[in-house]
Design a protein that fits this description.
Layout (H helix, E strand, L loop, with lengths): L2 E5 L4 E4 L2 E4 L5 E5 L5 E3 L12 H14 L4 H18 L3 H15 L3 H19 L1 H8 L9
Antiparallel strand pairs: 1-4, 2-3, 2-5
Helix pairs in contact: 1-2, 1-4, 2-3, 3-4
Length: about 140
């Protein structure tokens, strides 16, 4: 089944690891076969990886975009997920972590990315403004970088 994506003017996206940008008009991209594709809004830059849930998202995103090196990203994913699950006590979030792990094991990386957004939201709710200060590298954040 083809995948149809509407793109804003100048919107960046990644297809199978290649960064592309839409032209100066709205455009539509139709993928006829399976490909790894992420829109600009779904791409996390390395400097945005400032919290445990974001480390998980980034590892899954890299497995999805760079499948040739997926094993090295998987090892980091396992480490980060284990750490995250070791400090979270919310049963719904723990169940989400298990579901993400299952998706990753099945090679369903995009599906896992969608689920990772729930972890990030949960973490942001718990951290409040601390996450914002961490991303700025504030020395008074109380957390060592």
């Amino acid at each position: 089944m083809p995948l149809k994506i509407s793109l804003r003017p100048g919107e960046k996206f990644v297809v199978n690891g290649a960064v592309m940008m839409n032209g100066d008009r709205r455009g539509v991209l139709v993928l006829q076969n399976k490909a790894s594709i992420l829109r600009e809004k779904d791409i996390m830059q390395p400097e945005e990886v400032t919290t445990p849930a974001r480390h998980i998202y980034f590892s899954v995103m890299m497995m999805y975009l760079d499948q040739d090196r997926a094993q090295s990203y998987y090892d980091n994913f396992v480490l980060r997920m284990t750490e995250f699950m070791g400090v979270v006590h919310n049963p719904d979030i723990l169940a989400e972590c298990v579901a993400i792990s299952r998706d990753v094991m099945a090679g369903e990386w995009y599906k896992a990315l969608l689920r990772c957004r729930r972890l990030i939201s949960y973490e942001e709710e718990r951290l409040g403004n601390v996450g914002h200060r961490l991303s700025e590298g504030s020395p008074d954040s109380g957390v060592a970088a």
